[in-house]
Amino acid sequence: xxxxxxxxxxxxxxxxxxxxxxxxxxxxxxxxxxxxxxxxxxxxxxxxxxxxxxxxxxxxxxxxxxxxxxxxxxxxxxxxxxxxxxxxxxxxxxxxxxxxxxxxxxxxxxxxxxxxxxxxxxxxxxxxxxxxxxxxxxxxxxxxxxxxxxxxxxxxxxxxxxxxxxxxxxxxxxxxxxxxxxxxxxxxxxxxxxxxxxxxxxxxxxxxxxxxxxxxxxxxxxxxxxxxxxxxxxxxxxxxxxxxxxxxxxxxxxxxxxxxxxxxxxxxxxxxxxxxxxxxxxxxxxxxxxxxxxxxxxxxxxxxxxxxxxxxxxxxxxxxxxxxxxxxxxxxxxxxxxxxxxxxxxxxxxxxxxxxxxxxxxxxxxxxxxxxxxxxxxxxxxxxxxxxxxxxxxxxxxxxxxxxxxxxxxxxxxxxxxxxxxxxxxxxxxxxxxxxxxxxxxxxxxxxxxxxxxxxxxxxxxxxxxxxxxxxxxxxxxxxxxxxxxxxxxxxxxxxxxxxxxxxxxxxxxxxxxxxxxxxx
Length: 521
Hints:
Elements: H1 2-15, H2 22-34, H3 39-56, H4 61-68, H5 72-105, H6 110-116, H7 121-131, E1 136-140, H8 146-160, E2 167-171, H9 174-180, E3 183-184, H10 185-189, H11 205-213, E4 216-220, H12 227-240, E5 251-255, H13 273-278, E6 281-285, H14 294-304, H15 310-317, E7 331-334, H16 337-353, E8 358-362, E9 364-366, H17 371-374, E10 381-385, E11 389-392, E12 396-397, E13 403-405, E14 410-417, E15 420-425, E16 430-433, E17 436-440, E18 443-450, E19 453-455, E20 458-460, H18 461-464, E21 472-476, H19 485-490, E22 499-504, H20 513-518
Parallel strand pairs: 1-5, 1-6, 2-3, 2-4, 4-5, 7-20, 7-21, 21-22
Antiparallel strand pairs: 8-10, 9-18, 11-14, 11-19, 12-13, 14-15, 15-16, 17-18
Helix pairs in contact: 1-2, 2-3, 3-4, 6-7, 7-8
């Protein structure tokens, strides 16, 4: 076969630009015969050469037939055979391309997928945009299902994109990362606090491997990312992935509402140079899932933009007298973490002093050093007791996959040992809660088992972002110091009947001017 290939190459060179003469006839026969081909095979090869020369305009059919002793029927038949083969190859090529495109777009048609996933039109449009390869900003008011759509996008991409590390599920904060079952963005990057110049960031080898393998990067709570970091993130990924495109060529799904909590310092990510270059497609979710009351939904829209009406403030003032049932003390939302921690420790200490027996729920590591769990705000030990006010810290699903206990569900412990906690919910339902297992995103060998509860006499407004609370108390007076804080606090509730407000100042509701401009308000 090697000799035939070499001779065919020699023939191709000899034929280039030469007329077909008797001398060339003799040369072709000699060359083809030298590699042991039969007379029939030589004739077939000559026929192919002749047809090629005819198609190139170097030879007339009459001259070709004379040189190779072929009839017009034989030449026509062979030309049709070549054409059919070429058409077959082209069709096969087109079919292969089509299959690749269908695989890239997902095996399920978009409209069928949206129906099966029970997505709203806005949510389905976001999924379709990601499937088409667009980088998007998934945004919308609180309670529109951003976390739900994020989860569906992540699962859909994991099925479409080969490899266990191709989808990176991250969040800007540990609390948000825990809620979505991912890891913090900084942890995924492997750069600690990412301080200093981006050239000084030194990712681990494992981090470099996962960054190079990724094709889709999901970042939840993007509103809390600072513009300078967003620019540095793009530069860093381009360097690690050895790809000059922004973010190293990664497709991005950015999730969050810029009218909620802003970056701790610096400007919003949408003011960065890289944001303008990326130009993510804005997918705005408009159907509110958390609140059923249309009046409450409309009020929240006004509070979000810092535009409360007199009637809104009057209705909120009435929340001073909200009462709660079944022994549930509402969770106090505090502007500062330290205030919330102090309240929880004080209340727990009072119960222990009254004679309640303490119980410890210890985190158990299975594989790895557990460093990844710190970014998820999973405590090594949770100290509690009977009578402790608690909150479920992750969605608990049943065997059918439905959420039976949602993150943020309030309860009181009525019985406990080191292996389980019996809790009574605000509606009087009693449930037995056992430790849950979480795996490190991108590394299923590392896992942690922990009790998904937190003391809930108080939590910070920052930590409540993304949660739904069914009993909350908040001071909306001078303690509110940041744009979006008051709106985030109120929008955690499904209904105003779940809210108690101790103080109210209309100035607590404000939206940053840059955010108003960004959303075109």
